[in-house]
Amino acid sequence: MKKIIYIILAVLIIAGIAITVTIGLNTDIIYKGHVEVKVHIGKETNKKEITAIAKDIFENKKIVINNMESFNDAFVIKVENVSDEQVENLKQKLIEKYELEDSDDIITKKYVPNLKLRDIVKPYVSSSFNMPIIISSVIILVFMAIRYKKLGSLKVLLQTIIMLIMSEALLFSIIAITRYPVNRYLIPAGLIIYMGTIIITNMQFVKKFGRI
Between the chain's N and C termini, which has fewer beta carbons within 10 Å? Predict the structure, then answer.
């Protein structure tokens, strides 16, 4: 039974690697090439109203809307692609609804290029973020090596590291195969899998060999 499970896991990981290399990961709109349409109203505005207008103009396209400032008078609309006509229609809708004077400052747009995976991961591997993870990982691995030294410290370390690599590879493979959009939750999910793998590995040692 274990051999079948290992074979299935190996196939999933290989398939995930192949898809990532050939097709790439499916990124969320904030990470793929998209257009940022910045809307400047100049007065307190309900975000839901802006969202409704944007959905009406951009129809069935996926959009993400965020506040540009804390006063709810400016927003940035992220959409995969837009035409000049749609931007103009959006501008006229805003002018009509909020009784604005026609101005080029109401709407600005720019194209944001596609981010690479390393750009997504970069904020999480900075020294300030990464150092606590490295320190805690070393402490945990040393602890497990000492606790199960009768089983062979090197064997325990290798098995734990292999489990960590396999679990993270499986996570990325499932994301690649299912084409689930890569978003800001990817790295936190990876960290959860990382900690869960260490806990499960430790529990397996305890179950199999007892508290040594």
Answer: N
